[in-house]
């Protein structure tokens, strides 16, 4: 059961209970439009990754702007968003094990669905489950283009796997998943571009090798917030799966653009609203947002719009802020924090408090919160 939301529509920002997951709607909408317009100009489909927001209202807005559907990482995410009416979902991950595969195949009766594979045994498992329900399942072959995570080796290893899929009457090969996740946070622009050029060449070669063996890739998918410029203009990728662009976070804020400056093209729209709960020392303030309120594996959060204030350390329920002695921060003040990593931060909360200006305009559920299986 979800906890009650920390705000109601019509509240002012200073009335919102804390810690709360906050969305600046104006910034969110500008980010969504910027990415969709860019993909439209490139002639590439946008399929945003919903692992970032896990939220049906946001997914519906992305699709209304022109996205062809959404991505998920887990079957449970796809189930939650399909139940909320999302009609086209790609699981950009492997789904392994009898129970998960049965749930996956059953979900095709509710929504258009595709899934990734990188193993022959998994192909057999998916085909067997699809045969039981007498359905045809769309399947992508994932190739490893540098992330060293999932995926078969590009080239003939991919051909061998595609051949197995093509020989199963209940599986439908639709293309390649070629995501270079490790490149998303390479700081220098040219270094990121070079990483994607290598990934693109591996992908291009695999598409051509498949064609020589009679297999067509209807979809060539990948790309992320940090590298979407390169995939979308590559002439190889025709579907981009960026996710974090809608929110951004402190870690993405450390990436550099072509001019060597911090890349601020997409705005911070996601914040943790926190309250000052202790102010007993001149150079210290303690807030009510700590380890249980946001993710820290990518570093500490930034304090928004307070240049003389630094988030210095966290414990379970507290954050220690180092502040200038002349700071005006007082007990009870509310501050915005920019989390270091948006995706796992969202998964810690039940609700988005959506503001326009200083007024709460909407409260949205994190529809697939905790959906990790």
* Poorly predicted runs of 5 or more residues: none
Number of domains: 2
CATH architecture of the largest domain: Alpha-Beta Barrel
CATH class of the largest domain: Alpha Beta
Structural class: alpha/beta
CATH level-4 homologous superfamily of the largest domain = Alanine racemase
Instruction: List the secondary-structure elements in sequence, H or E.
Output: EHEHEHEHEHEHEHEHEEEEEEEHEE
CATH topology of the largest domain: TIM Barrel
Core attributes:
373 residues; alpha/beta; Lyase, Ornithine Decarboxylase, Chain A, domain 1; TIM Barrel; nine-stranded mixed beta sheet; 9 helices; 17 strands; globular
Describe this entry's structure for a reader.
- By secondary structure, the chain is an alpha/beta fold.
- Helix content is 28%, strand content 24%.
- Helix 3 packs parallel to helix 4 (98-107) and helix 4 (98-107) crosses helix 5.
- It starts with 19 loop residues before the first strand and ends in an 8-residue tail after the last strand.
Note the topology.
Layout: E1 20-24, H1 25-42, E2 45-46, H2 56-65, E3 70-72, H3 75-83, E4 88-94, H4 98-107, E5 112-117, H5 120-133, E6 137-142, H6 156-166, E7 171-177, H7 189-212, E8 219-222, H8 228-232, E9 239-240, E10 270-281, E11 284-287, E12 302-303, E13 309-314, E14 319-323, E15 334-338, H9 342-346, E16 351-356, E17 359-365
Parallel strand pairs: 1-16, 2-9, 3-4, 4-5, 5-6, 6-7, 7-8, 8-9
Antiparallel strand pairs: 1-10, 10-11, 10-15, 11-14, 12-15, 13-14, 16-17
Helix pairs in contact: 3-4, 4-5
